[in-house]
Design brief:
This protein is mainly alpha-helical and about 170 residues long. It is built from 7 helices and 3 strands. Helix 3 (about 50-60) packs across helix 6. The chain has helices at about 20, 25-45, 50-60, 70-75, 80-90, 115-135, 140-155; strands at about 65, 95-100, 105-110. The model has no long low-confidence stretch (mean pLDDT about 90).
């Protein structure tokens, strides 16, 4: 069974969430978020990387020579957490960190050619995950869902406002 195929599980009525929770949009978002995270961690495992690494590489691909602080702020990561992720990516040769010649306190981070190649692989994994997760929806429904999610994300996290996805 692939990562994208739903598992068929027969549950007793007692094993199902209460109707009150199934009527709650935030409950459903949490459940789907947890499911998406679990599937992503499993799918990324053979690469030795995580969805967090993917996000860093994607941020660097969009805007090279980012500072560590800018990357952490853009992704909403704790700066100390980001340093660990960057250490792992640098050890694998996927990024390079250099002191900023204008401000020696800052490190500039760039994606290496191997990092770009790895990012392409990770994007394929994400695409497969999303296709599996959203397989019950047709393309119009997926676009509507994306628009609604982006509207909510923009409202609650202003960082999302400047980011318009070209799909």
């Amino acid at each position: 069974m692939s990562q994208s195929e739903p598992k068929t599980v027969l549950l007793s009525p007692r094993a199902r969430p209460p109707q009150e929770l199934l009527a709650s949009d935030s409950f459903l978002l949490r459940r789907l978020g947890m499911l998406a995270k679990e599937r992503a961690i499993q799918a990324f495992q053979p690469t030795g990387l995580s969805p967090y690494h993917h996000a860093v590489l994607a941020a660097l691909d969009e805007e090279a020579r980012e500072t560590q602080a800018t990357i952490a702020d853009a992704l909403g990561y704790d700066r100390s957490q980001l340093v660990g992720l960057l250490d792992e990516l640098e050890t694998r040769g996927l990024i390079v960190r250099q002191r900023d010649s204008d401000d020696r306190r800052r490190h500039l981070v760039t994606l290496t050619p191997e990092g770009k190649k790895t990012l392409t692989t990770l994007r394929g994994i994400v695409n497969e995950l999303e296709n599996g997760l959203f397989s019950p929806l047709d393309s119009a429904e997926r676009e509507t869902l994306h628009t609604l999610l982006l509207t909510l994300a923009t409202h609650h996290d202003p960082r999302c406002d400047s980011f318009r996805v070209q799909r």
